[in-house]
Amino acid sequence: MFRHILKISLFQRLSQQRSSSLTTSIPVVDVSALMNCSSSFEQHPSSSMIKASKLFSEALRQYGFVYIKNSHVTPLLVEETLLQSRWLFSQSEELKSKNLLTSNCHRGYYKFTSACVDDKIEAYSICRDIEQPYSLKQDYFQQLYDNDEKQLEKIKNQYNQINKWPPMNSEFKRIMLDYWLKCQKTSTDLLWSLAKYLNLEDPSIFIKQHSKHDNNMEIKYYPKLETKTKTTSEQMLRFPVHCDLTTLTLLCQDRESGLEIYNQNTNTWIAAPSTDDSILVNCGDLMEVWSNYYYPSTKHRVIQNTNNDKSDRISIVYFVFPNYETEIAPIQHQFASQTTTKNSDFEPFQVGDRMPFLL
Ligand SMILES: O=C(O)CCC(=O)C(=O)O
Ligand SMILES: [Fe+2]
């Protein structure tokens, strides 16, 4: 009980910090009717499911990014995860480097220099928390390297590295894994809904090809900048312009500004501030191709916050990937003729072919 009250008041305090004074034209969609739809969607879906699916799909189609509320990722869980993230980055260099440092692996702590000259961004990453993570990728690598046992052994050792957890904080691990799982569940429901909206012959095609949940979650810490670098627009970037490689990406942030989304209709950048009760979803390159260019992979970036650069910033990004062996090619669907027909000479590829190779 006490714990619950504490959590709520903490949540209220933090969400006051998180709510934004900025406005944005990116739509907010209530996805409550879609949650659990991948397991409960019967032959005759309810009208609220159909409505939510249409709103979500059309918003993604139009903007590339959508705020979703009432997903499995509750506002309280977002606050708790941000709080634990903040705890991690405030730990000593020794703890972060000694216990968590990673090289050539998608799990653990690392630093990188980004677009801005004196910018050092810290990051912490986890993947699906299983004992033999290579098992998720072995179908792909085995057909790639067939009989090359030596190479396969090397790859197996590399990919079997497990998540790195800070010692003596079991709460950290519990909350991170909870957040990870709720993003997994949310993304599965959203993938189902996107396929359903396209009226695909097999509406479970996307989720079948995501059965291994080989996803990656990355928390980034952007420290307060000591010097203002405002001279050119290039220098104001904190994370460069890019598209994600994913099918879907789920993103939340704890400060009001920084993230911007490119709108190709108006040729402008739109601010994507954090909100109290929603998280952002966008499509990446794999979904763009797979959906026959219907759901666009949209450019985005993080800029230096010039209104309030007294603060640091945390973002939590959950990258959703199909199984490595999945073959990607534009799919036929009811809207396919309206989309750019780029598929006549399209060479199908496997997801693993596009992923960074870690040896
Ligand atoms: O930090 C952010 O808000 C954006 C990061 C991002 O877009 C990415 O990691 O792909
Ligand atoms: Fe991104």
Helix/strand order: HEHHEHHEEHHHHEEEEEEHEEEEH
Bulk shape: globular
- Mean of all residue-level pLDDT scores: 86
CATH topology: the name is Jelly Rolls
- Helical percentage: 25-40%
Overview of the structural elements:
- The chain is α+β, with helices and mostly antiparallel strands.
- It has a single domain (2-11, 23-354), classed as B-lactam Antibiotic, Isopenicillin N Synthase, Chain (Jelly Rolls, Sandwich), CATH 2.60.120.330.
- The chain is built from 11 helices and 14 strands.
- The chain has helices at 2-18, 37-40, 47-63, 75-89, 93-100, 138-145, 149-159, 170-197, 205-208, 285-290, 351-354; strands at 28-30, 65-69, 108-113, 120-127, 216-222, 237-242, 248-253, 259-263, 268-271, 278-283, 300-303, 313-320, 327-328, 349-350.
- Strands 1-2-10-7-12-5-4-3 form an 8-stranded mixed beta sheet. Strands 6-11-8-9 form a 4-stranded antiparallel beta sheet, with no helix packed on it. A two-stranded antiparallel sheet has the order 13-14.
- Helix 3 crosses helix 8 (170-197), helix 4 crosses helix 8 and helix 6 (138-145) runs antiparallel to helix 7 (149-159).
- The chain binds 2-oxoglutaric acid and fe (ii) ion.
- Fe (ii) ion binds next to loops.
